[in-house]
Amino acid sequence: MGARILRIELRRSLALGAGLLIAAVGVFVLFASNPPYRSWMELAVFQRDTMQLTWPLALAAGAWQGIRERRSRVAELLATTPRPRRRRVLPVAAAMAIAVLAAYLVMLAGASGHLWNFEVYLSAGTVPIIATGALAMIAAVWLGQALGSLLPSPLTAPMLVVAGFALLAVLPSLLLDPDRRPGTMLLFPQLQGPRGGGYLVQTFSARANLSQALWLAALAATGLALFAAARPATRVAAVLPILVGAAIAVPAMPRLVDSAWVTDRRAAEVVCTRDDPKICIARSYSYALDYLRGPAHEALATLAAKLPRAPTRVLVETNDKPYQGRPPANTLLLVAPDPTAYTPDDLLWRMLDGAGVPACPNLIGELDKPNQRYIAGRTVAAAWLLDRDPPRASGRREESAVGIEQQALAALRALPAGEQKARVNTLRDAEMTCAAGDRIDMLTASDSAP
Amino acid sequence: MLYLRSRAAPATAIAMLACAAALWALGLAIDNPQGRALTALLGALAATTAIGHGLAGPDHELDKTAAIAWPPRRAAHIILAGAAVLAALAATALAGEQMADAGQLARNVAGLTGLVALGAVVLGAAQAPLLPVLWTVLALWWAPPIGVPPTRPAYKVMLTWMVQPPNARAATVAAVILATAGVVTYAALGSRR
Question: At what angle do helices A40-49 and A126-150 cross, to 10 degrees?
Fold first, then answer.
């Protein structure tokens, strides 16, 4: 009996239309307002942030459903039936909850098309973020149904959208300092990521998630109880869960929202791909793997073809801090805080710079006064490996440096083939140990011993 | 008088006044200019959505039998309602400090009223607010302090007309088109049954 009514309510009530509308609006916003997401966590948090919009919509959908009997002018007729109100409204409450839950998941699935690719990092911390969001949607729709049945006016639903949006989106951003959001912001369904966008390496603490989920569950319980209550006394009792929930959840919330974002240790672990080319990168940067494959394959193949003892894997260093020590001989180290910020061609040049060895901190000079001949020598080695001319002057590459490079490359190419290889190999060995010595002379001087 | 009662004018008027009062109260709390303009927009949105409900009478068949020329009456209804919203919101500027540029407020009220009228024609009076509410809430995503509204190309300015600064011409054009289209179609066709 119950299942049959539920099926009818799902088909005949507002549930389907509201679910579709919320999912469509959500997918549109998630696609339109952000660049592609670099991890599932980033997507899940932005979906929660979008609740500033979807939550008031769910609230209004609930309210619109809640005044259905009044609108159809059957409220009095139904009140005369012996079937208790709670038995009568539970199926429709369940139908609306199923609809918004499905809308939330459809929204996530639809917006997953806006991920970098499906290799992006999926951390365990993403699941509670999504689950809490789904719970918030159910709380919204039940609260809306309760408000709709308490204030059965056609103005209730549109006013709830506007008021909800003002309350969730506009007022907090106007009244609160974004750098010091108090923990009680977790009473709101939306969730903003850490300041500075550390989504890739951070996760939301279990305690903050739990306190928020508890509060939302209390909100949902109050909404459902208010909606199902037929007498004033039961309505008063229905407010009880929200009070209990607040009493437990508020003290458990962090002092500042930002302090609840904690480091995700698994995210920083370096993992290697199994297939060719072998690339090692921090787990949270796996979105860039797809992008790195082409240049990495070409760099490794070029080195293997032209030099002995070529490296067999690429290690991508994404930390901002300088790397410690020299990489082992079988590893090509690429220092790139955001690998996808470079074009594939730039990545190839960077990988082969200095014959595939990172620059030595003791030789490269200061940032404002770089050692030009050292840098030029490294570029010449890359150009020789690629059998191409050095890139044109632009930005920090000055005309004079490009001139040195072109001369040196011409001189190097004028040598016999075996000698060319030996010279580049000498440069690579010197780079490996950061030995002193002019790199251009190593490549071109007629008297330098290999 | 009967016409006004049948069109739920008292409830609409009360809702409009409540919106104006809420706007005035918020004006006391918010002091940055962007926030004030945003709140003024939300106030205008809430007040115009209140019009929607009154755009149809309780009995469509009964209205059809009346020997009244409906189009002028409907046009007068929607124009007066929009003017009332504008007056109520402008009155808050007299009572306290001004919330938003008067031209911007007039543009938004006109455009939103047109949208409500269009909503009534397309969706029916009860569902009419869906159109302006959805459009505004989506456009607000690109308004400060959440985002920054686009300044070009023109079609993006027109799509986000309600969050544009007062001197954006394309936004004004969009609002005027919506207002005219709303008034004309509502006067000609009336609310959907």
Answer: 20
